Predict the 3D structure of the following.
Amino acid sequence: MEDFKKIIVAVDGFSSCGKSTLAKSLAKRVGYGYVDTGAMYRSVTLYLLRNGVAIDGNQIEPIVKALDKIQISFKNVNGKNCTFLNGENVEEEIREMYVSERVSDVAAISEIRRAMVQQQQRMGLDKGIVMDGRDIGTVVFPNAELKIFMTADPDVRAERRYQEILAKGKLTTMEEVINNLSERDRIDSTRKDSPLRQAEDAVVLDNSEMTEQEQLDFALELFNRKTAQLVS
Ligand code: DC
């Protein structure tokens, strides 16, 4: 049998573009690990909010102290990839609106980014990983063998997010969803440290009119082409 070398797949893009859905299904299909880096910033946000630590880049000392007390890990629970904060399963809570509203401010703080990027780079040491986020192809793994940059029409993204929230039985309005998405896009792409941008060697995937299966097929084709080039 041919021996395919393991690679790193970086999936970046705007909020609610379907990055995690694609990254997860690609990882499952090719037998790779999956890391949701947004969940890491969300977990830090949850910790700071719960512990009354000010989310303010000008008051960095309490934040740095808090970072020492934060342990984030991922575990599969009943077939679902779950995020753990200091041993507690916080997968549901980190998706709550009160976390979503502050996470972009948290992700703009350099000290926090540095700590998260270090952990992410450690997770990719053995390759064989699909990681999604905003800066994976530009900062975390600039040498990733395959980089996908996802985008979609803002209305399509808002509708998907809205349906996702309703499906969880939560109350929201379309206006609230649109405001949150556009505010996060603005902060994520204008922050000084590692703003969201497309890596020069990334392949753009606009999934406004694509099914999940079509997106997976697209990514699989890129993946197969890349790994075939690297047969050892
Ligand atoms: O992917 P998400 O919506 O769960 O991400 C939550 C926030 O974290 C979002 O505002 C962008 C930020 N983020 C980041 O700055 N860098 C990453 N690698 C991943 C997420």
The first helix runs from residue 19 to 30.
